[in-house]
Amino acid sequence: MTQYDVLVAGGGPAGMSAAMQSAAAGAKTLLVERGSMLGGTTNAAGVNFPGIFHAWGRQIIKGYGWKLVADCVAHSGGKLPDFSTPPERHWMHQVRVDRSLYTLLCDEHVTRTGAEVLFHAMPAKVEALPEGWHVTLCDKIGLQEIQACCLVDCTGDANLVALAGGALLDDGPDKQPGTYVCKASGYDVSKLDMEKINAAFREALARGEVTAHDAGWDVNAPAASRWLRQHGENANHIPGIDGRDSRGRTQMELAGRKAILRMYRFLRQQPGLENLKIEFLAPQCGVRETVRIDGDIMITADDFISGRVWPDALCCSFYPIDLHTADGSGLKKIDLEPGIVPTVPRRALLPKNLKRIAVGGRCVSSDRDANSALRVQASAMAMGQAAGAMAALSAGQGIDMRDLPLTDIRALLEAHDAIVP
Length: 421
Ligand SMILES: Cc1cc2nc3c(=O)[nH]c(=O)nc-3n(C[C@H](O)[C@H](O)[C@H](O)COP(=O)(O)OP(=O)(O)OC[C@H]3O[C@@H](n4cnc5c(N)ncnc54)[C@H](O)[C@@H]3O)c2cc1C
Prior knowledge:
The chain is an alpha/beta fold. Helices cover 31% and strands 19% of the residues. Flavin-adenine dinucleotide (FAD) binds next to α1, α2, β6 and α11.
């Protein structure tokens, strides 16, 4: 049986940062990813615009995630946005990365820290030991047993915490819709008669050939124009999904791809769109919401909006409250007031009543509105790095993450270029 200091589950923005920080701190680290590549939602779901690393003219998130993103922009000859002043719209400070290059660089950045990566595997069973954890992994040829002093759950869906018996926060079946990203080409937007196409879209809707969600976020204003202007991208909503388990995910993948096929069939019949093609289809549907852990503390929307600086803060987060409504009416958005920079406390990364396990990323202990902001990629990276630092220190010192002196965690993070509030 192989023994590790730290096992990280999930190789998205949070899990990569956790594994890089843990391995770079000297812990023997295994990163288990159920898919075939690192990057998580950024590349597997095609959401290749990580953010937000800057607020009010200064950088508030750095560390391993930022290094990777900045390296990708530099490698591709791209240009970072001008971060010196607040943008007109928040998303203008997101950093667009080349999907293919990003995937290649994720491998390089993670493996060079010494972290071991295992693709095509996921935890099936988790048992507590007096000094750590016994984990059964399901890999391609069967079950594999390993032991680890500490666990870090970066699955986005708190899969590892659930297997370890941890409590979860779940707001019921009305989750935020998913989005299936694609990229369409073969037409010139400036030559399209949008009014005519939108009228045809409404007729197709009445005939049941398309749904309003297929082409936009607001079902009260059905139109194909947003989809066409964005060339697909994240214009659709896939409603009524539960992305927590494989059955729910399967329904979601099928529904998402059906939506794109419906759009393809409809659009190809419209003037100017005869040669439309789908040149990129994300490997999977993007999931905005499933469950969060019930942690030692829950970050509320009030905490987030007021920019609460927690006494045990380990990193910053920055994004508007950005809740895609389950009823199809669009978006609930609350911008942060000038100067506000929310923080994430250690306690929100620790599941109640469990020792030697932390989370990073989307499943951070938070209420629904706060989570709609905390979940974004830069914040996930910062939380992942904080969780990786705690896990490495906890494994090294043989004590629970709660008992680590905050000064030790913060010093380790700062030594690895993270920004601690
Ligand atoms: C449509 C859409 C648009 C978005 N827009 C933006 C945006 O503009 N900017 C932004 O910054 N963020 C955006 N986000 C949010 C952001 O992409 C995610 O919330 C973020 O990637 C979360 O990071 P994570 O590491 O927690 O989880 P994920 O990115 O979901 O990564 C989780 C990883 O864990 C793996 N995994 C899952 N379960 C297991 C398991 N049981 N065992 C092993 N591996 C497992 C997955 O394969 C994946 O690689 C968007 C999300 C969506 C869906």
